[in-house]
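About this split. The held-out portion is used to measure sequence recovery: a designer receives only the structure tokens and must propose an amino acid at every position. Recovery is the fraction of positions where the proposal matches the reference. Here is one held-out target exactly as it appears in the evaluation file.
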């Protein structure tokens, strides 16, 4: 009976010692958080293992994550994964649908990135357009009008000039044949008769004013169809048109005149553009919005993935993942680190403590046997 008591007692003592030893060992991983001193001598095992080696642990964790977990190759594979592309494309589609649903204007879109587009147009638009126009004038003022115009536009003008004689003669004939033309001829004859006095009075003895006006009207109308008259008109128009085309820009407009035109044009363009920024983009450019919704999202998703993939090495170098992890771990409170580790390894730590009790008990059992038989 005495022998059994000794064995049980030794088992209990051994279990308590083994269990408490493991509990203390686990606690010493974290505690104390700072070193303690007796006089000038630091007490051994202070601070605890993790507080003492926190910087080394942070460096190792950062190294492991960078070299084995979040590697450039792995991130590249994930980026080019079909699910990643679908996720990016879906996000773009959602934003485009919001653009249509909410009737967002260009001004509202740019305001989301802190850009006052209307203000930018008013402050910079005028200056930019005016500057570009004046630079154009400075660089091209010695060139002829014909050389400044697009070839297709010059051809169009040439064709219109060829038709000008017919148009002018037809307009003149219609005017002379109209009641207004008749009245104007009579008015001019009245003025002429009043100015010439007696000489015209003698003429009126042979012809009435109405017959003279009618005769003049008929001759003028006939003149509009006369080949020689048409040739003269054509020659005049052609010569004037050619002279206009051969003029240098500076002869048509001097620098001050062009500058005034540039100011007015830039003011008109920026004012018009500012008004358009308040219109919903879907109404302002419906075809463009349709293109965005049908094709743009997939193309943009591919472009984003491709650009990220091409510059991933640079991005990771700039981000410095290892340094970021080290910095974050070093900023954590030791209480928080302890909490994280215990939450992760709680089951295993309990098993270690239990194992301490079991091993201590076994050792106590054998010690009891030794105590009995020795």
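Reference sequence for scoring:
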């Amino acid at each position: 009976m005495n022998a059994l008591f000794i064995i049980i007692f030794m088992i209990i003592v051994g279990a308590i010692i083994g269990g408490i030893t493991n509990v203390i060992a686990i606690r010493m991983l974290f505690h104390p958080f700072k070193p303690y001193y007796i006089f000038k001598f630091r007490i051994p095992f202070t601070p605890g293992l993790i507080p003492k080696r926190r910087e080394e642990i942070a460096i190792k964790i950062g190294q492991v994550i960078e070299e084995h977990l979040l590697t450039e190759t792995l991130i590249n594979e994930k980026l080019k994964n079909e699910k990643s592309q679908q996720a990016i494309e879906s996000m773009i589609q959602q934003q485009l649908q919001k653009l249509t649903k909410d009737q967002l204007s260009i001004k509202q879109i740019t305001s989301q990135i802190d850009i006052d587009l209307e203000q930018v147009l008013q402050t910079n638009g005028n200056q930019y357009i005016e500057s570009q126009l004046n630079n154009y004038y400075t660089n091209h003022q010695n060139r002829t009008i014909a050389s400044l115009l697009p070839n297709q536009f010059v051809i169009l003008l040439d064709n219109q000039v060829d038709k000008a004689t017919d148009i002018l003669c037809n307009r003149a004939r219609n005017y002379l044949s109209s009641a207004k033309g008749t009245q104007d001829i009579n008015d001019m004859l009245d003025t002429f008769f009043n100015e010439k006095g007696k000489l015209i009075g003698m003429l009126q003895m042979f012809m009435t004013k109405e017959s003279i006006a009618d005769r003049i009207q008929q001759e003028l109308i006939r003149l509009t169809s006369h080949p020689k008259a048409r040739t003269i008109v054509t020659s005049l128009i052609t010569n004037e048109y050619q002279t206009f085309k051969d003029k240098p820009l500076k002869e048509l407009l001097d620098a001050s005149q062009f500058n005034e035109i540039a100011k007015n044009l830039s003011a008109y363009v920026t004012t018009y553009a500012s008004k358009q920024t308040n219109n919903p983009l879907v109404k302002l450019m419906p075809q463009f919005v349709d293109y965005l919704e049908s094709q743009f999202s997939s193309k943009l998703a591919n472009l984003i993935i491709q650009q990220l993939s091409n510059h991933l090495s640079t991005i990771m170098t700039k981000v410095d993942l290892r340094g970021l992890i080290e910095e974050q771990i070093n900023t954590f409170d030791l209480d928080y680190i302890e909490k994280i580790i215990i939450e992760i390894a709680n089951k295993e730590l309990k098993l270690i403590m239990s194992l301490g009790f079991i091993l201590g008990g076994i050792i106590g059992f054998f010690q009891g046997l030794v105590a009995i038989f020795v």
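Annotator remark: The chain is about 85% helix and 0% strand.
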